[in-house]
Hints:
The protein is mainly beta. The protein contains four helices and 14 strands. The chain has a six-stranded antiparallel sheet with strand order 8-3-11-12-13-14, with no helix packed on it. The radius of gyration is 25 Å and the shape is globular.
Amino acid sequence: MPKPGPVPDAGWCLLPDACASVTLVIFVATRSLQGERDTVNTQGFVNTALRHATETKKARYEPASDRLSTATRFGGTPWWPNGADRPCCDRNHPMSFIDQISLGDVPGFDSADQRLLSFHYCEDCAREGQMSFGWPDDRGRGYDLCFLDPTAGSSDGHGCVAHDWIGARDVSFESIEEIPAVGDFDEELDAIVPIDFFSYEPPDFDEYSPLPADDVYPGLKHVSGTKLGGHPSWLQNPDWPIGTSGERLRFVAQLDMVLCSELAWASGMAFLFAAHDGAEEAELVIQST
């Protein structure tokens, strides 16, 4: 009977079975992969990731008294032009105001752009089983995204015309340089990711937090909560909307499950996109876990 030899790093070896016949045992090449990954220059990965980093504005928000404003805001009363109809869905439900984002606040857009990207959503449709997940929209638009120019006239002064699921929030921002989420790594980054990247826990790790920490690896950050600009924190495969030009729309903002805990996507994220070349194209993508 042959004697078992030492287990190689990857491949196979011969072992006796109970009937003294030789059985071929295939070993998964995990140790080989581990060895290759362990030799990766970790600082090289960090430096490469930082070349892909871009500015995002992490949102900090808290409940506030409702007041009319032309600034970036979540919930409460929207700025809406006088004389224009408020958004309704195809089933004639008044849509709920979710947010308005001053494009001048969004990294990558012209800081002098005073237009608002206004977002309304039909929660009534969602609760009746007709939830819209945004682009590509094949079930009728249960949401409205439009560009408004508050310098062109006055607000209609009608306040909230549908239920406010978020509540008025004051918002402030912290600028952070963030790397893409793993789903958006290009081939260069994907080829040199260290094994411990996926198991890294930052010093302030909180297992009870509904959102991952911003520190995703020593020297690298990615904001997974509500933010303006930067890189989307996809919960599923990346799903970038394509504009009429054939190019991807630019990422404007994401709204997390903490801010939107009363909405249909409370277990997920809403992502907003818009053209950045002056074209008035905007889209919504909703992903849930």
